[in-house]
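debug: dumping io for the single-chain case to check the tokenizer round-trip. Nothing else runs in this session.
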Amino acid sequence: MIRLLIIAVLLAVLIFGVAIGFYNATPVTLDYLAGQLQLPLIGLVLGEFVLVSLLTLLVCGGRILSLRGEIRRLRRQIKDAQAELQSLRNLPLKDQ
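debug: decoded output
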């Protein structure tokens, strides 16, 4: 049931994307420092989306990797603390 819903949503997004692409096929001129480039508006929008996505991955990728390292370190600390607790529980009680 959920899988069918996901497929329906993806299909709707695909159809919506095709419609946007069809209605935004007008060629536009992109002026940049090295020259000019003429391409359809949807190509420019998709290119910008891909570029921004890659930049976001680069910026957030370092933070994600550092957080994963911290998770590994904290899990190791928990494992060591649990082992120490278990060894303390196994010590015999001294008579006072």
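debug: round-trip ok. The longest strand covers residues 27-32.
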